[in-house]
Amino acid sequence: MKLTLLEGNVFEELPKLEAESIDLVITSPPYWGLRDYGVADQLGLEPTMESYLDNLMRWVKEVWRVLKPTGSFVLNIGDTFIGGGRGPASLNCNHAEIQQPSKLRGGIYRPKQLLSVSSFAYCRIVSDTEFVCRGEHIWCKPNVPSPIRSRLKHSHEKLFWFVKDADKYYFDERAWLREEKQNSKARCKYSKNISPGPSSINLSPTSTYRTFTDKARSSKDGFIIEHSWRVVPVGAKANGFELSGKLPSQHVAPYPSKLITPYIRSLCPHTGTVLDPFLGSGTTMRVAMEKGRNCIGIELDRKCIPYIKARMNWGAGLGVEYSEIPFKKELSK
Questions:
Q1: Which domain holds residue 253?
Q2: Same structural domain for residues 188 and 271?
Q3: Which of 113, 134, 158 is the last residue before a domain boundary?
Q4: What is the pLDDT of residue 183?
Q5: Are residues 294 and 241 in the same domain?
Q6: Separation of alpha carbons 118 and 131, rounded Å
Q7: What was the pLDDT predicted at 49?
Q8: Nearest alpha-carbon partner for 232 in 142, 153, 139, 137
Q9: Rounded distance between C-alpha atoms, residue 265 and residue 175, angstroms
Q10: 209 and 199: one domain?
Q11: Cα–Cα distance between 28 and 115 in angstroms, integer?
Q12: Which of 75, 105, 248, 333 is 20 to 30 A from 218 in CA distance terms?
């Protein structure tokens, strides 16, 4: 198993990777207009959503290049609300809203408008590349604090799952199986294109891809694929497919390891490689290491590097090969 840490700008480091060498890209880039990480050349501070999406497509097209034909790309991206238009462009992170210059007011930039950046990003990706979206998964976050009282709390984010070839991509469904409820079994007999038969769990750990059809199959083993969940606070009552636990506090916007674990298990073979172009606190690399996958991470913020290394027991061995390309001198000033 090999862990590779590339310290620098995604636009400089991503083109260095070999074409068709990655099995899974899973990442959560900086959202537009929500946070200022205090890092030069960071994404998310573009003056308009259009320029943010232009930058997003620059690195997404590189993702297409480095992915294997059987590879997948999972994108976690959030939305924002337009602020009241008071003063210059600035961030209001506590309210998860942005203050835009008055020249942007009107059209989609009307004050208090929900700007579905994730939807615009999806449209750009499927329009400007050959990616096929195999699913939009909802991450519900009921514990998100919000002082806003003039609207309902915006407490979910989206994860889009894209593939290069909709008929031939790696997918191990065992990571997603949940026990089927009796009422779900009863409804299946009224559904079209459901044929009885054995479970389709037939992958070996060394499988590289499967060929799929759109015909649904029921499982006589009583299991179904589930891919929607909530993250609840510790001690809160859990209902359904939910995850409990505290997020690490060393990074301002991490996603929980349990959120991405099934993606890594199901979309990257044991001998494969996971890439996170915006490594942040290192959660993707940590989960990949725990699940025996190789991982490459790119991170621009120097403050994150020591924490990432601590989470990986960097240099400690344990059957792991470590590779690091540090910041260029001009980036470390």
A1: 2-79+116-332
A2: yes
A3: 113
A4: 58
A5: yes
A6: 16
A7: 93
A8: 142
A9: 6
A10: yes
A11: 18
A12: 75
Q: Are residues 191 and 262 in the same domain?
A: yes
Residue with more model confidence, 229 or 200: 229
**In degrees, to the nearest 5, what angle opens at C-alpha 123 toward C-alphas 121 and 125?**
70
The contacts of residue 227 (CB under 8 Å, 6+ apart) are 135, 137, 176, 262
Q: Tell me, yes or no, whether 92 and 235 share the same domain.
A: no
- The pLDDT value given to residue 133: 98
Q: Are residues 93 and 73 in the same domain?
A: no
Instruction: Using pLDDT thresholds of 50, 70 and 90, give the confidence band for residue 147.
Output: confident
Is pTM beyond 0.70 here? yes
Choose from 8-12, 30-34, 95-99, 208-212 the range with maximum mean pLDDT: 8-12
Same domain membership, residue 46 and residue 129 = yes
Q: Is 81 helix (H, G, I), strand (E, B) or coil?
A: strand
Residues 122 and 141 placed together within one structural domain of the fold: yes
- Number of domains the chain contains: 2
Residue count of the chain:
333
Residue 238 in this model has a pLDDT that exceeds 60: no
Give the per-residue pLDDT at 251.
45
Torsion of CA 299, 302, 304, 309, to 10 degrees: 90
Domain boundary among 96, 113, 130: 113
Asked whether the beta carbons of 149 and 51 are under 8 A apart, the reply is no
Specify the amino acid at residue 197.
G
